[in-house]
Amino acid sequence: MTIPRPHRDDVLLAVASVCAGLVLWGLGVYSNAGRHLLPDWAALVPLLTLGTLELVRRSHPRTALFIGTLAIVADQLTVGNLASVLIFTDLMYAAVVYGSPALARRLPVTTGLLTVAVTIGAVAWLRTPQALLIGVVTGIVSFGPALTGATLRNHREAAVAARLRAEQTALLAEMDRAQAVTAERARMARELHDMVANHLSAIAIHSTAALSIDRADTSREALGVIRENSVQGLAEMRRLIGLLRDAGAEQEAVAMPSLDGLEALLGQARTNGSASGLEFVLHDERPPGRPAAAPVELAAYRIVQESLTNALKHAVPGTVTVRVARADGRLSVAVDSPYGDRPGPRAPGSGAGLIGMRERAELLGGEFTAGRSGRVWRVRATLPAEEKAVEA
Question: What's the CA angle centered on 12, arms 7 and 16, to 5 degrees?
Fold first, then answer.
């Protein structure tokens, strides 16, 4: 097991805890003063062990909690040290805050059941009101820190989820803005055709007439029409060019969803899927600096997004792998999610998501497949990556 460099706060916490425990031991302040099964110095062994575990409370919370539990049990066989108990409560808290999602879910439940069991057992055994204190102490040492850690972790995950949702909302808003700009540019293009092209057509017709009919009055009349249409056409061109320049400057700030936003997309999926035992991994094998055409990137982004949504609704606990690659002028998207009998209720599905992904791929001239392969649900999409592949 590789042990990374301890966090500075963990080092300070370990040193302060051990020093406080040594001071209490030196003053003869014991938590189990009447228990002399072992020499008094034996209480230092659990203290030093627990203090050392504080250094790995972030990097290896599960291991720290396991060894710390053994150490606190051993501490009960000695005269005891209050600092050892306090260090153990911090290890329990750290295991929930920094441990895996599964560990964070199990510890509050486990410690809560343990507290209830110890309370009932102590009352049944001692049959005195003071036996309730044993359950209270057990809850303070185990259930209290676990519940506090779970509350903090839930708040953190909720904050991260809110931030990711805000990022996704911003991406969607930018996409809507890009579509609005595109529609406005198309409107100006139509206006350019309807007005300026009309002037140019008039100029072409009258110039042909002036060249074909060799009469002074006809030539003078044609030149008048040509001049009038030239002036009007030039004014329209200047007006429309000004509008296009403004739209172009606005377009530079627009950011449509693309494959560069997959990491943020998977970050949200990780927060939402942590409670279901799902992990999400991204393998981006595209060559750097070579984005695909914007419609292709948008379609690939939406295919991944819908696949992750389906995984959150239907996949069993495991790892969802997303892989994007580009080779030979084709952009490939692959999403593998664990398939099987999922415990608990399933979210109903209409199948519209698969239909939508297939339509996105086929509209771009690509290919799409989705189906079960053993215990894996596979989604595959192959799209043309070049701009010419998506032209109408």
Answer: 150
Could you identify the residue written with the tokens 């110890």?
118
Residue 157 confidence (pLDDT) above 80: yes
Assigned token pair, 34 = 């009447």
Backbone angles phi, psi at 328, to 5 degrees: 55, 40
CATH of domain 259-390: 3.30.565.10
Task: Answer whether 132's CB lies under 8 Å from 119's CB.
Answer: yes
Joined tokens for residue 360 = 């996105």
Q: Rounded CA gap, 370 and 357, in Å?
A: 10
Cα separation of 61 and 91, whole Å? Answer: 7
What is the Cα–Cα distance from 13 to 7, expressed in whole angstroms? 10
Task: Tell me the per-residue pLDDT of 205-249, one tens digit each, with 9 for 90 and over.
Answer: 567 667 776 677 767 776 776 777 677 667 767 766 776 666 554
H or E element, residue 369:
strand 367-373
The 8-class DSSP code of residue 316 comes to P
**Whole-prediction pTM:** 0.47
8 Å CB contact between 30 and 43: yes
Q: Which secondary-structure segment (H or E) carries 378? A: strand 376-384
Helix (H) or strand (E) holding 323: strand 318-327
**Helical segments of 127-143, H only:** 131-138
As a 3-state breakdown, the chain gives helix, strand, coil percent values, each rounded to 5, of: 70, 10, 20
Q: How far apart are CA 251 and CA 245, in angstroms?
A: 10
What residue ranges in 180-315 does DSSP mark as E strands?
A: 278-285
Q: How far apart are CA 195 and CA 91, in angstroms?
A: 76
Spatial distance between the Cα atoms of 233 and 199, rounded to a whole number of angstroms: 6
